[in-house]
Amino acid sequence: MNCIIVEDQPPAQRILQKYIGEMGSLSLKATFSDALRAMEYLKTEPVDIVFLDIHLPKLSGMDFMKTVPNPPSIILTTAFSEYALESYEFNVVDYLLKPFSFQRFVKAVSKVPQRNVILPPEHKEIDDSPSKTEIYIKLGYAHIKIAIDDIYHISSDSDYSEIITVNKKYISSEPLRSWMETLPKNRFYRIHKSHIVNLKKIEKIVGNQVCLQGGQKLPIGRAYKDGFLGHVLK
């Protein structure tokens, strides 16, 4: 999802930039110190989420929401709680009260309506192609074909990832982010900074663990739990 930051305080900008960088699903397109510049940007550039402060120079965040026609999803970031009730009149996605944790940030992002998600063409091709049943993994100078149904999970260990299948383990130099871009979105989900699971291989979810067919258990990261449970239990 493409996003922008509208925030006039550099420390707050840096925190949001850090959190966005840690979210594989977000792409930060621009950061603005005032709402007027952000409004000009939105006239020509498509954006899915605006992380918006309320107290801004020239034009407040509240006035920004009143002025922008057909605004993207808005997540407010502010140190003032008294605007919460008024803000929901503008159908904001969430209201983050500073200082907020990364876990709270992820929870807010997970509330963004899926209709606002703009996938690149290559993602749409993967999602819309029911005939895609295999992927190729680059191992050295060879490309090994693997059936998607055979993959249980993909886990990352520093500079490489392990693809665990029904009866074999493959080592790849591709990071987890690359696999999330390659695998069908309706079949695989990232549950931890180090783990992607095949949803069809899940037997049960117990507490903060996913139990896969065959008995293997994987942890659910705190930052990913709300989004994951919201996805599988909807």
* Sheet with the most strands, sense and barrel status: 5 strands, parallel
**Distinct helical segment count:** 8
Low-confidence stretches: 115-131
The gross shape turns out to be: elongated
CATH class of the largest domain: Alpha Beta
Helix content: 25-40%
In terms of structural class, how would the helical and strand content be classed? alpha/beta
Characterization of this structure:
α5 packs parallel to α8. It is elongated, with a radius of gyration of 20 Å. With 234 residues, the chain is of the alpha/beta class. 27% of the residues are buried. The chain is built from eight helices and 15 strands.
Key terms:
8 helices; 15 strands; 234 residues; five-stranded antiparallel β-sheet; Rossmann fold; 2 domains; OB fold (Dihydrolipoamide Acetyltransferase, E2P); five-stranded parallel β-sheet
Gist?
With 234 residues, this protein is an alpha/beta fold. Helices cover 28% and strands 32% of the residues.
Fold blueprint:
Layout: E1 2-6, H1 10-22, E2 27-32, H2 35-42, E3 49-52, H3 61-67, E4 73-78, H4 84-87, E5 94-97, H5 102-110, H6 121-127, E6 134-139, E7 142-147, E8 151-157, E9 160-165, E10 169-172, H7 176-182, E11 188-192, E12 195-198, E13 202-206, E14 209-212, E15 217-219, H8 222-232
Parallel strand pairs: 1-2, 1-3, 3-4, 4-5
Antiparallel strand pairs: 6-7, 8-9, 8-12, 9-10, 11-12, 13-14, 14-15
